[in-house]
Design goal:
Elements (H helix, E strand, L loop, with lengths): L38 H13 L8 H13 L6 E5 L2 H11 L7 E5 L5 H4 L7 E5 L21 E7 L8 H11 L2 E5 L7 E2 L2 E2 L6 E5 L12 E5 L2 H11 L3 H6 L3 H4 L14 H12 L1 H19 L5 E2 L7 E2 L7 E4 L9 H10 L5 E2 L9 H4 L21 H9 E3 L6 H20 L8
Parallel strand pairs: 2-3, 2-4, 4-5, 5-8
Antiparallel strand pairs: 1-9, 6-7, 6-11, 8-9, 10-12, 12-14, 13-14
């Protein structure tokens, strides 16, 4: 198979997977995340230990983080609430918009499961829709056919950092009076038509887990404009001080001592870490974009590879888990696992994608999951229902989300030479 531009000359070297010398000489790891703490951050963490290790309402680094994050969203959200994880924040979001037993929430068939799996705790049903094979986000053209009388919301995930088609999704939501939850966990700083994600839906959630570009270690943050949604989300995981001080609804305020029974608050230590990461977020986005666009340009020279697509309306902020699609039909039918193994043998940091279609996961495919009794109304899915999601789940692999431009450029250049080497010596990977 030839490249998109030129016929690559045949290589003389033997692939490392067959005993040849590996091509990547730079010592691993090629990417370390999260970055090491600065002296300033370590001082702040130590000081917090002596000042206050408890959580008293919306105060200290918790308040500071929430306020600074609202500023980062250009002051276009009124409330921010931190949680101990993005998953907890999503549960609070579903609870806040009033999801109840038997309700349906439309969601993409491929993303990280936490975007939708928490609705099962509310005894509701995710109604899965296939994804756009180019953007990897929910296919807006297929949403409306999934709407029923039980549909209450649409969950929009800006998958791997790429914004979803928000104009089309908003029109559908308005037409059917549906709430929109934006899961921006992969997409801090990403923009749709110049507007930051997290500013479109009724409520939005950002994960601050350690692998995210904005990291707390573990953590999540929910943002919203509605006072009613704010009060309900707060009550789900923040009892006593914060609920007493912030909840304005007279009925809900009476529950301030107990909340609704859960403690899902962020630790002040996580807030300190996130604050320092937030200060460097824009610069890290700039560097990561430079690295990954350079990598995409290199990979685009090979017909068998499709680097991440960026729609004309999209401006990538945080990339998360840079995915490349591999087409074995365009590379002598060499299976993806063999292809990735050959890359790894050459010294490339590469893994098969770990994000399968939900139709392959037991939580979404087994009716009697033993989570609750008598779940006769649970909607289940099977392989074959979501062609795009299933194809991408099986035919994608991922690289590190390189962020240090000068160091990463050298690594990417060696990776390119490795792809070329494997491309030219494909015969060594053919079945004999």
């Amino acid at each position: 198979m030839v490249s998109k531009k030129t016929h690559l000359h045949k290589a003389k070297s033997i692939l490392a997977i067959n005993g040849g010398k590996k091509l990547v000489t730079i010592k691993k790891p090629h990417f370390v995340w999260p970055p090491k703490a600065t002296k300033e951050e370590k001082y702040h963490l130590a000081k917090q230990r002596d000042d206050d290790i408890s959580i008293k309402g919306r105060s200290g680094p918790i308040k500071e983080l929430e306020d600074e994050f609202l500023k980062y969203l250009d002051g276009k959200r009124k409330f921010a609430i931190t949680y101990n994880s993005g998953t907890s924040a999503l549960l609070a979001a579903y609870f806040a918009i009033g999801i109840e037993e038997g309700d349906e929430i439309i969601a993409p068939a491929l993303t990280y499961h936490a975007a939708i799996s928490s609705v099962y705790f509310l005894k509701a049903n995710p109604i899965l829709v296939d994804i756009d094979p180019k953007t990897f986000c929910i296919d807006s053209k297929k949403i409306e056919q999934a709407v029923t009388k039980r549909t209450k919301a649409i969950t929009v995930v800006h998958q791997w950092g790429h914004p979803a088609d928000m104009d089309a999704i908003l029109k559908i939501a308005r037409r059917h009076n549906l709430k929109i939850i934006e899961d921006c966990s992969h997409a801090h700083g990403s923009k749709y038509k110049g507007k930051k994600v997290g500013l479109f839906g009724d409520i939005a959630v950002f994960s601050l887990q350690a692998n995210k570009i904005l990291f707390a270690g573990e953590g999540g943050i929910l943002v919203v404009n509605s006072s009613e949604l704010h009060d309900r989300a707060t009550l789900l995981g923040h009892y006593r001080d914060r609920s007493n001080e912030e909840i304005k609804d007279k009925f809900l305020q009476q529950f301030w001592v107990t909340g609704y029974g859960l403690k899902l608050r962020m630790s002040p230590y996580n807030a300190v870490t996130a604050l320092h990461a937030l200060k460097k977020l824009d610069q890290r986005i700039k560097e990561r974009k430079k690295c990954l666009l350079y990598l995409s340009n290199k990979l685009s020279k090979f017909l068998e590879l499709t680097p991440p697509y960026i729609a004309p309306y999209a401006n990538m902020g945080a990339w998360y888990g840079y995915r490349v699609l591999y087409d074995p039909k365009k590379f002598h039918n060499i299976p993806i696992d063999k292809y990735v193994s050959a890359l790894a043998a050459e010294g490339v940091e590469v893994k098969l994608s770990d994000t399968p279609s939900f139709s392959t996961l037991p939580l979404f495919s087994i009716k009697e999951d033993r989570m609750y009794k008598n779940r006769k109304d649970k909607k289940t899915y099977s392989v074959g229902q979501f062609p795009a999601a299933e194809y991408i789940g099986l035919n994608a692999f991922k690289f590190p989300t390189f962020t240090d431009w000068f160091e990463s450029k050298e690594i990417i250049d060696q990776y390119f030479k490795t792809f070329k080497k494997i491309h030219e010596n494909y015969n060594e990977l053919l079945e004999k």
